[in-house]
Amino acid sequence: MNNNxxxxxxFSGKAIQMFxxxxxxxxxxxxxxxxxxxxxxxxxxRTSSAFGGGMGRQQxxxxxxxxxxxxxxxxxxxxxxxxxxxxxxxxxxxxxxxGRFAALHGNTHCRMLIGADLNTPEGRxxxxxNDLFSKRCELYIETVCxxxxxxxxxxxxxGNSKDNDKR
Length: 167
What we know:
The chain has helices spanning 11-21, 25-33, 41-48, 63-76, 84-105, 110-114, 121-129, 132-154. It is built from eight helices and no strands. It starts with 10 loop residues before the first helix and ends in a 13-residue tail after the last helix. The chain is mostly helical.
């Protein structure tokens, strides 16, 4: 596979559009990359639906990151029990994107990134009044799409997953 196929793609535009249409952050990330990772949109939406709002609206690890982890797993993940190389590569890529995101935004947890509690009326009102989904979450979506694009261009798909050659 020539990893350069990711170079000209506008993953962030599709992801932000989906987010604005009402899909959660994790869904927006995984689904924008779905054609690239050979995943149909329906399965991408279903698979990632519980990860928005920091893992089921628990405001833990940001949904854009969990969406990114799913993309990384689809591209580089372990597909046979003995493929320790793919497992280690996947873990390193997850650590890398998490660290880079934290360096840019100061945190990886939804509650801290948004600065409000999604689960209280006061928190939701604060988010709405300050347009935080647009001002913050869309920035996080752009960041992760950019970082994922960098990874897919620079890190070759290898390991035991034979379908990587078809990407």
